[in-house]
Every structure is written in structure tokens, then in C-alpha cells.
Amino acid sequence: MQAYGRAFARIYNLMWTRFANQVAPFIFDFYASTSVGKSNKSLLDLCCGTGQLAVHFLEKGFRVTGLDLSEHMLSIAKENALPYLVAGQAKFIQDDASHFALDERFGLVVSTFDALNHLENEQALQACFRCAHAVCDGYFIFDLNTRRGLRHWNNVEINDRSEDALIINHGFYDGVSNKAWTRITGFIREPNGLYERFDETVFNTAYEMENVRDMLIEVGWKDVQFARIQELGVSLSAPEQEERVWFAAKA
Fold it and tell me: Is 9 exposed, middle or buried (0-12, 13-18, 19+ CB in 10 A)?
């Protein structure tokens, strides 16, 4: 799995936190409506990034563990969740989402913003499912880009909306292969007023949604559903027609 650098983590925290802030309430509402969610307020946030989703659940009284491979992402997540870290309500762990083991268990395991598309292959994805199942007493919720969604990576986008950063995204996906690529280049302003240049190449692995569901079931997850974020309890019949699919599975 990819581990992002310091400048990229700062850009992420500055420019790309909207997704987590938008989806967190839907995930919370779905989980709170379940029998386990009414009593078990514990969350494992896989590939937690800079911690925005974790903070949403911390504010709701959850005990939260965030896991990410990037020490730079985790450093910012700790800053964002500092009061909860001091209180012992939150902790953040550097580890690989496809190969981890924890001594505690959780009512809810989540991974958002197509983070699991960044695993190398189906073997790594299924290993992640196995690790998550081993520590979950309730639900596993995550999203993936579909092949249809990844076709939108074929573009060049310049983002200069912030005075503190300039970002150029150059994406490529041929619609057939198992990898989509985006090169993210830009500049971010340092506290001294100077700009630091960064350059990251990000990949998404393309999965067949039915194969993903089969892998979840094989590991031991039950009641696996394809869904949209606004209706996590409503099953989709044609997931490949979506650009992004959410999965809700029960331990």
C-alpha cells in the first residue's frame, strides 16, 4: 500500500477533507440504527488519513483507533484529534491495512475515500478483509471506485483555489487494465512564506464488484450489500453502473 509524504499529507489536510466530512454522518446514522450500534461505540478507521472521519465519531462519544501507513498523515491526524488523544479516547497506529493485528475489538470498522482501491491486488484486499473481520463485532463499511468511476481519471485538472497551494492532477485509465494512475504535482506554502514542491504518483486498483463481495463472504462477512452512501441499508442491484460503490457487511 502507498504511504504518502509530508507535503502530500499537508495538501490532503488542506484540500481533500470534504469527502470524509460529507460521508461520516451517513455512516454514523446507519450504524446507530443497528442493534450493535445502539450499545457499542467503538470505531476502527482503516487508512484514516488526517483524521476527519475519526474526529466526527470522537465528537459522538466513540472510542476511536485510526490506522494508516503514512507517518505524515498520522502526525496531522493526531494534531486534529489532540484533545481526544490527551483524554485517552483516541489513538493512532502506523500499520498496513492489509496486514495488521490488534488486541482490541470494535463495533464498527470503516475505510473511506476509496482507500482500499490503493491496495496492490485482490490478494491484499482480501487480506485486509480478513484482518478487519478478526477485530470486528458489528459492521464493516467501505467504498470503492468502480471501473466506470475510474474512467474519470483520464484528465488534467489544475486546482489553484487556495492561496496556500497549487495542485495539478494528471490521470490515466484505459478502462481495461487493473490499474489507474494519477500523478499529483504542485506547491504548498510553508510557514516562512516559501513554497515546497511535491510530486506523488497514486494508483487505484480496479476490482470487479461481485468478486469483492465473494471475497468478503469467503473471509466470513455476512449480509454483504452494495449500496450508495445516502442509503447504506438499501441494496444496489447493478453496482458496476455506479461510479462509486459502498459496501456494508456484518461480522
Answer: buried
Task: Domain count for the chain, please give it.
Answer: 2
Cα separation of 236 and 248, whole Å? 11
Are 122 and 154 found together in one domain?
no
Q: Which residues of the chain have pLDDT under 50?
A: none
Q: pTM of the predicted model, to two decimals?
A: 0.95
Is the same domain home to 199 and 210? no
In degrees, to the nearest 5, what angle opens at C-alpha 247 toward C-alphas 119 and 117? 15
- Helix (H) or strand (E) run with residue 98 in it: none
As a dihedral over the C-alpha atoms of residue 30, residue 32, residue 35, residue 38, rounded to 10 degrees, the angle is: 170
Residues 182 and 201 in one domain: yes
Report residue 34: phi and psi, to 5°. Answer: -90, 165
Closest CA to 32 of 136, 112, 114, 139: 139
Whether 201 and 103 share a structural domain: no
pLDDT in tens, 109-166: 999 999 999 999 999 999 999 999 999 999 999 999 999 999 987 887 888 778 888 8
Strands (E), the chain: 42-46, 63-68, 90-94, 106-111, 136-145, 156-159, 165-172, 179-189, 195-205, 222-227, 244-250
Same domain membership, residue 155 and residue 136: no
Q: Which domain range does residue 212 map to?
A: 6-146+206-250
Please report where in the chains the cell 491486488 appears, as a residue. 121
The answer to the question of residue 38 being in a domain is yes
Q: How far apart are alpha carbons 171 and 176 in whole angstroms?
A: 15
